[in-house]
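Running this now, will post back.
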Amino acid sequence: MKVLLNVTEVYRIDTEEDVQAAIEAEKENAAEKGYILKGYSSKMKEKKSKGEIIDVGYEVTFKKEFNTFWEA
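Update: finished.
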């Protein structure tokens, strides 16, 4: 038997406002979709060319737990 225990999802999101919206959406979806949001993080990343910032984005990570080892 094979049972999914946990998943780590990583996204690129363009704005800080969208990051906050994504975090709130994941918190709300957790109960509805049957997982526990064990953690999340976001990190701003900048792309530079010749010392100038040419692009900015956020790397957002969600850690989801569907089952524990002994519940499976």
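Strands lie at 6-13, 36-49, 52-65. More later if anyone needs it.
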